[in-house]
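Prompt: For my understanding, could you write out one protein's sequence and backbone structure tokens?
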Amino acid sequence: VTQECCVQNAAREYAKLYAAEAETLAGFGEVPEIIPIFLIHRPANNIPYATVEEELVGEFVKYSVKDGKEVNFLRRDSEAGQKCCTFQHWVYEKTSGNLLVTDLQGVGMKLTDVGIATLAKGYKGFKGNCSFSFIEQFRALHQCNEYCEMLGLKSLRTTHQKQRKATSTKSKNLPSSSTVKKMVPKKAREHRDFISSEH
């Protein structure tokens, strides 16, 4: 419960900084907001700690899932979805790829129950609640939109393609059997990360 509060309120601070920058741009419009979450102590209750937050009324939408896969059309096609993607890109760039706000979901522009992925050692003393593999998947899957361009964010696609090209050039010199051996454990490892995030 305490970690849930820490994660959401940390993400909220990043969202405030994002909003302050985005709101100065002509034509950007409304910016997603991560609502605050509060920890309360109830000593007389069987469950002494609980969280309290604003009730969101309306259609609840998952704009991104924890593992970073862009599977939701509302994420890709709606204004809120695109601005959530841009927020993720903005945080990724501001933290030099060390932190990513994930699991963006809510009603319209009001978001709650978010996650944060960091490097294993954390970022500036803060550790997220999601696997670092989510950052890698975001880097591979993110597609910039008009809001990324308005904020002047660098395309991740170009960087990722350059890395892949360099990797594929190296693998041509290796025997095909060793290439296969190297790829299998990586896939298995990614699958394990995904399974563990569900629990």
In short: The chain is about 50% helix and 15% strand. The chain has a mean pLDDT of 80.
